[in-house]
Amino acid sequence: MAWGLEKWAQLGDAVGGLATLGGLVFAVVSVNRWRRERLDERRAEAAGRAYVALSRACDSLAFWADGCAAFLVSHRSDRPFAGEDFALYRSHNELGQRSSREALNDLRQLVESSSVYLDEPELKLLLEAEPIWQALRTDAAPVGATDKRLSDPIIDKMCARFDGYAANARALLDRGSVLRDVGRYRIARRSRTRRSSAAEREEGMT
Fold this sequence. Notes:
Oligomer: single chain
Number of strands: 0
């Protein structure tokens, strides 16, 4: 039985409706994929900045603690001693405290601005540098309070504490490598995009 114009028109409308629906589905999927990619990129950017800030804070803390320990070791009973050397210690202590405090302030601001993109465990990881700074400042201050030689047992005890702070700072940075790995997403994605674009250009030239 031959189809009349009306049936052909109905078929055309149905096909057109399916095409429109397919276009809408494709648009929704494309938008959702774009949103996910943008979220991943922003998360990668935030993680990369967080790792840099954490690295600066941990390096400052380790440098501060190592310097304090090195000074004490150089003033054991079997080493020459000069009371005025404590002025150098106080200078190092002030510098270490100030530089690490600035790094921690930057880290705290980054935590506040990146809380949307970083996971809770990652944010907690960034905040672990603060207690190290607090404890190090507490232990470092009394050492420079007097110009008198400290006893070897006290020196050994304080050096162990300072070495512990430096080790904790370095261990924290090692655990922070997860942020560095997340931050590499952006670099890897850009690299893939550039390779894809280059391949398309080569195909167009052939």
